[in-house]
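Supplementary notes for students who missed Thursday's class. We covered one full example, reproduced here. Read the sequence, then the structure, then the short commentary at the end.
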Amino acid sequence: MRLVMERLSAELSTARLSKPHGKGLSGGAENIQFVRLSFPAPWDRPNASSTVSTVAPLRIVSYSLLQDTNTAAESGLLRSEELLAKGSNTSTNVPAANDQGSSSLVGPAVPRNGSVASQIQFLHFRYWDGSTWSETWSAPDLPIGVEVSLGREPLPPETTADEYPFEMYRRVIYLPNHAVGRLPSPAGPAVTQATR
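Structure (token representation):
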């Protein structure tokens, strides 16, 4: 849980708008997709003489919750990442070079590109615009903050996310690029982490 939350925090902190591609951040209560910067690490270069491009590539990262009533089907947190093609509105589905993930007895602690972390069965997002929280985001600007809630047990039927009865990990992640090109909002949510 902690590894997934740390990764989400790190990735969302580099979320940005890509006006040439017409992409930014969009999401609902159980899914999110955003454009982020991807800085290659030195060990990701094929050889020591390789040079790193001065332009950091943009990637589209998606997190969603897979749920299936078929007990044989895989369920849990799904993460995928695509390279945002330069000069177009398309993306290319390629694994991240430094997306190594780690494993545990029940599956990847941080899912690899396109794989599922089966131990996470509850995922909930909310978006802060400076005055209200919303469970969806499709505005042209980035939200000021994103609240992420994770849990190991699925949400019981006919129960809302606010009534989730099991242990939950929650964090509000501040998006520093929300204010790029406009004045910063005077008020916003505090960055917190709580366990219930």
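Commentary. The longest helix spans residues 2-12. The helical segments are 2-12. If anything here is unclear, bring it to office hours.
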